[in-house]
């Protein structure tokens, strides 16, 4: 259970057993008003939090109640859990929309287990070490944008493949920056400032692509334009603002950093409109792919609840994953 | 032969026969200073115009002459054509760089055979018929940008696949607008203003992607960023300028037109970072593909000089093309 | 509800509420004779019309009744609708096969909303404008084949991707002919008669590939041979009949029109045994693809019943579709 | 050297050494009339037979001679071989077109090394063992078509991948029939008559797809329609002729055999408009692929002239081939 | 029903009707201990044999019973079948794990219908005819390995695509050897001993890759390494053992047979780390593919229980299969 | 020029100018004995070292000289360089095979610029830090194999894509180990010993796959089996030797490390018979790919000799590479 900001302890969906009283806030999704064979109205719905979802049924419902429900949104539910045809469902007695500002959103959205303040501080330090004047100015313009940085620290890193949690974008960027810092000394031909700036900015558009107030989803704009193009637009807007403020960013520098962003998915089929064509673009692409896959693989291994040596089939990886660790003596 | 601006008639490369005096301006490419087995210096080079290229050899050359040559660039050449091992080459007596502003560039770059003024006028008319206020404002901002429109009327439509000539971008856009105008009445569900604006703007970034002063090539910026992303940046810059001037372009309208641009190659493997997701994006994609292929196919058929019923193998189409037309009576 | 030819009004499946008397003709599919745990026989079945299907249950059934049922086919059903585990089902009291000739098939198969007579008249006009004598003779031989033209006006344009309705083949061909007529003047190098004949005949084999008496399905012959090869066989049969009647169709004309048919899917992976190798074949391919996608996209947008800006995921298009239209003022 | 029908011995291209008198019949290809730097006309050409080709040069040529040459065709050449820049070429003194009927075509086109009469006899025997009345009738209609069978015994099996020689179609079909006969007893569920008829007819359209009078090439019709569709048209023509003569071939039998033909390339990307959907179609596809690859692989191994254990890179197989055989004792 | 070794007749899952007493051994899978809404514990499980599976429910269960169950494993079940919501399920009264050695495993795993002794004898004969001394020694080392040959005669040929039954590996290898023996005389350039040894050994690693005591599954080692690499390791182990015993296998012979094994899937995408590069490797690849597909296609046709001319969609073949046989007279 | 072991200074191919005396050792390739048009014998050949190759011609040659030449091999050449048709060639007066042991092979094969002793020492240190007893034993068995380690320090890392130089395998493995050591602390879930051992052993089979005495090429065995399968065989041989010596390597440990080797190309199409299925296998795959691409990209950039901002087209990367570095001030 989770201690909420209001001092209340949220009962998670995956902790509800049959025959219990339910009195808590959940996200309601896809409520539908139906009539029984006797003509009585009832509402079918899903009730969810970050641990799962259950069917809900409110018998003796009315159109007034139905219309009052957010679709989707937070609701306070009073009722009781029961087994119906061997599936658990919640029979709802009362249901009422609740002000989202009063809700501890972490109960409803998975959140990184890492310390966001600490991670952001390290991001600032690593990016702060960039020495090239214009690259440094460009990155500082982002770091100085308080509203954007707040989103940067909250946004998920993805919808479901990897880092799909509140703070996931920060966690992913932070981890990539640490990898970059660790391996850059091993490849002295590479321009480190370009790699660090590229890593910092490569997914910045995800702050606009994804929405994450009650659940992870794409914004309309995100779905039409995508985070790659949005990131490119963002650095051009920041460069324009810098120019207006007297700091000119050279066009070829902007193209070089823009190219890293456009090519960081590495292949056309993954939505990159350009293939990597600089050594730095290749490095950012590989660090991104490595860090994403490490998260995806270790998360899938951690999430496996069976006692099998293997996880379930991972469609994105086209394999099951072997999770048995080496015996200490072999 | 072509009457130049200077009243001089250019002798085209494909008109030179063996044993002729040469005294004209060509583009020199890849000049190399070499020494013969006797130790004498000579310069090997290619001499080109829009009709082809020949080997050039300047015997008794010096490093001073070599260094004075543009690489590549326009040069005035005096010399003589001769057959060497059955290939025509030009033996150069004198060679000197020439001011590009004194050159009639049309002799060196293929040019659309259509009337550019007439085409641009029709583009203005068709785009001028857009009635949606913000879309109209956005398009008019482009039409009012004199420098850009000059480039729009000169730029090629591509490097080599289709419309690869001066004025090709205009020719392609003009043709697509006429197709759109012809078929839009047949698909009443489609929003015509979006399609017309999308067609007008879809390749605008090619004005920055390609250079075409002496030959067709990619700019550094074009190769790093690509015309698709450049077109997107351009409409955002124009929208920002309109906003600064008091005309707000709604964000979702900008996303909708931006989506048409980002998806107009239709598939990831052709460099579109987004797949078409609106009816209008599909229509622009299909009109673009149709018009490009019609130009590519009819150009290849026209270019075939043999008497065969078939063109040479067209690698991009994975076929040879059958060019025999129907006999009038069957 | 739909007024049938017999003056009766059909109650559509998607209009049935719980607790209603049912007394109408439906298509029965997949009836199965089962026994309950008490050993009583009952029949499980689906009852369908063009708006959907419901489970049907006939308790106290007998093997005689079961054997009398068409599998599938039209049946007259008397019974009652009820909610069972929140799903509507029909409890059948009596069920009896019915003569298909007495059924208004339009209630059971979706039908184009366009006027078939009008469309066929326009097809005749556009095809009638073909001036090349042999192409005109070939097309007229098809137009004069009354039985075939009846099928041509009834057949669906496809199983599920686009124009999947009675009259869909006609609607698709008609729309393509109008597009061809609209854009042919813009591409003067193209031989218009070949394009018009190619469009008219390209899918003619669908009249044999698909069956559409009670539901859309493939014929055995259609599944083994396919409409592309069937269309080719049909033009050869017609040419042979013309030859026997004294009108010779030149072999290379037949190959040229045959090639358009064989290549009109544009790529091997879509079942074309030949890639387009004439300008006319490319044009037919593009018009076909454009018209099919326009129908597919606008149908998916129209069919979306939620209030979302986006349709459900469209697997064939690998995207969801954005359906929000421009606000009048932007 | 090859003893010709005329009692003359042809000197093959690959037997000509430098400094020899040349006085023989070759195929001339791509003759071009050019002028030297002194303005004298000469003809450049290729002179070929089945063993290779050499450059030919006729100095002091005239437009009359040039126009008299077949392009391509058989010519009698008198001249002399010489080394020019280390390449052998033929200096032509006189050249004259020659009546193809007087030429032993085997000198100019590779020919199967197997006995065609013997192979065709075995084909007749194996096909003659088909017992199903209609399948037997259909196959006998082909065997009884003398003109077609003459082509069937002469046509190549392909342009260059496998069995690319006169008689190659017969050799390939004969070998496949023998494989089918050998393995059919091992797969008792398969209908042997269908497999044997399918093998016999699967490539019959190659008799129309390929021309092979002086060199192997595609006919216009072959390139537009392809041998798969041509084979289908041929069995329908034969079935129609049988029907006219009183022997009806059942439509579903015709579809079943037609399906084998349409699917025998096994995959869409290899030009099959249908994928195999019967056990017999799968068997014909596999026997075809096996026999073609065996010929392709063993031919490439035989053709290797170096002493290497490996052949040159085989692009169609994406590998070099290892040709070292097992030592007798390991 | 199947007469077991213990004289008892097993009642197969697909023979159980509603309302019957159940008293037999089945495989229990995925037992779960749950509580009803009243708090009573029950066990949900699947009960299976080779003919299918049913839901099982044991009400009034205890944690002791739950813990005593194998997961999965053989259990003796007493209870009764009943219809629940039209699905048959087994209500379990008593359930107890049973010693697998007392179970007739054939009731639980599909088994080849062919005579294994007879097949193995023929394998010995065909492989025994290999005359090359070292290849013969290598194959005999496998035939002499009694434990391995026992596995070879029991292992399935695959998980689900083809020969997925006890004895399937033997059946597949036996059938391939017979095909090889039948066609080798038709391809005299091929080294028959290499093909026969290659066929015999190509899938030997499946004895280690697959487990098949109660159900077919992959071993951990099989999933990590795969049968292709395992087969290669096995021939190297046998060669090392022969060498230790005084019989040296030449390295290039081992590479040649190893190459056949590594390349027998024919394409990288099917898990072959090498493409076929010898004529013999191509032949083994084609025979393997032919025999696997013949089994897959005929099994799918045999398994179809409907009266349709077509099987259900076969995803691995991307088609439905046509199963109607020729009418005797056409 | 390079000071050889014999105190002689090798004149490199790319240092030879026209008109110079040649008296040095080169690799002769593809010598061919030909006759001139006058009937005189001459030998055409290529003469090469690590910097390139030139045509060689020995006039007045004899069959005796021709037969004495290695094909290919080291030869001492005396002669003279000359320009022939603007290409440099070497006219050979005398040519004689030379004992390879007397040749400084570094003149003929590119060699890593890094210090091999230092790199191998660091490899020993990093691998020496593996703590898991069996993994450590397995790796030490490799490090203790002097002959193998000598090969490991000399072998190239590839044929042409990356690290294609003497010492390239060591350089690549060393660099990967350093990357692994740098990033392993950032991914605490990963088992570091497995990654380090996997990196050390992943390409060990290249010591057998490639030959590199005079030029880089594949061994027969390497081409038939490949380095992936060879590496697997090597660890099994070492494990067997350890077992014989009393140190048992657990089968699942061997499978886990074997799996890393089999899957380290990451995708089937790159010759991996297994896809990565453990977190450690993913990490080795990504480090391998990153390090290989960094070498490939920076080598291509370094090798570019033009003054262009772009390298030539890189076919393996499907792009040209942008090599302009950031201006210090932007």
Topology of helices and strands:
6 copies of one chain form a homohexamer.
Chain A: E1 2-3, E2 9-10, E3 21-35, E4 41-49, E5 52-58, H1 63-68, E6 73-84, E7 87-97, H2 116-128, H3 133-143, H4 146-154, H5 168-183, H6 192-201, H7 206-209, E8 210-211, E9 217-218, H8 220-244, H9 251-262, H10 279-303
Parallel strand pairs in A: 5-7
Antiparallel strand pairs in A: 1-2, 3-4, 3-6, 4-5, 6-7, 8-9
Summarize the structure.
The structure is a homohexamer of 330-residue chains. With 330 residues, chain A is α+β, with helices and mostly antiparallel strands.
Keywords, separated by commas or semicolons:
40% helix; five-stranded mixed β-barrel; two-stranded antiparallel sheet; 330 residues; disordered N terminus; 10 helices; homohexamer; alpha+beta
Characterise the protein shown here.
The structure is a homohexamer of 330-residue chains. With 330 residues, the first copy, chain A, is of the alpha+beta class. Chain A is built from 10 helices and 9 strands. Chain A has a 5-stranded mixed β-barrel. In chain A, helix 9 (251-262) runs parallel beside helix 10 (279-303). The model of chain A is unreliable at 1-5 (pLDDT under 50). At the C-E interface, helix 8 of C face loops of E.
Proportion of residues in helical segments of chain A: 25-40%
The beta-strand count of chain A equals 9
* General form of chain A: globular
What's the total helix number of chain A? 10
End-to-end separation of chain A in angstroms reads: 39 Å
Largest sheet of chain A: 5 strands, mixed, barrel
Would you list the SSEs of chain A in sequence order as H and E?
EEEEEHEEHHHHHHEEHHH
Return the average pLDDT of chain A rounded to an integer. 90
Question: How much of the sequence of chain A is in beta strands?
Answer: 15-25%
Q: What's the oligomerization state?
A: homohexamer
> What structural class should be given to the helix and strand makeup of chain A?
alpha+beta
Most extensive interface, chain pair and sizes: A-F, 54 and 54 residues
Radius of gyration of chain A: 24 Å
Q: Describe the strand arrangement of the main beta sheet of chain A, using strand numbers.
A: 3-4-5-7-6
Q: Report the uncertain regions of chain A.
A: 1-5
């Amino acid at each position: 259970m989770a201690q909420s900001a209001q001092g209340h302890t949220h009962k998670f969906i995956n902790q509800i057993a049959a025959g219990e009283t339910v009195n808590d806030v959940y996200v309601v999704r896809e409520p539908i008003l139906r009539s029984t064979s006797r003509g009585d109205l009832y509402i079918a719905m899903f009730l969810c939090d970050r641990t799962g979802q259950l069917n809900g049924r409110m018998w003796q419902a009315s159109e007034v109640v139905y219309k009052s429900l957010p679709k989707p949104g937070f609701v306070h539910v009073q009722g009781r859990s029961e087994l119906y045809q061997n599936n658990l469902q919640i029979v709802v007695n009362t249901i009422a929309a609740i002000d989202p500002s009063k809700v501890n959103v972490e109960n409803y959205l998975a959140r990184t287990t890492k310390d966001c303040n600490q991670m952001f501080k390290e991001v600032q330090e690593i990016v702060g070490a960039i020495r090239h004047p214009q690259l440094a100015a460009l990155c500082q313009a982002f770091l100085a944008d308080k509203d954007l940085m707040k989103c940067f620290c909250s946004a998920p890193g993805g919808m479901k493949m990897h880092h799909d949690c509140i703070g996931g974008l920060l966690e992913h960027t932070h981890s990539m920056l640490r990898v970059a810092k660790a391996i850059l000394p091993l490849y002295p031909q590479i321009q480190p400032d370009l790699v660090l700036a590229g890593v910092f900015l490569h997914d910045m558009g995800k702050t606009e692509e994804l929405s994450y107030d009650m659940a992870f989803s794409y914004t309309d704009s995100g779905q039409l334009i995508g985070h790659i193009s949005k990131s490119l637009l963002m650095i051009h807007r920041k460069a324009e603002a810098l120019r207006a403020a007297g700091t000119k960013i050279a066009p070829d520098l902007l193209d070089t950093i823009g190219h890293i962003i456009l090519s960081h998915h590495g292949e056309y089929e993954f939505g990159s409109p350009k293939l990597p064509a600089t050594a730095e673009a290749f490095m950012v692409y590989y660090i991104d792919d490595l860090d994403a896959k490490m998260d995806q693989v270790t998360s899938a291994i951690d999430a496996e609840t069976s006692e099998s040596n293997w996880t379930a089939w991972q469609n994105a990886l086209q394999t099951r994953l072997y999770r048995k660790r080496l015996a200490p003596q072999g």
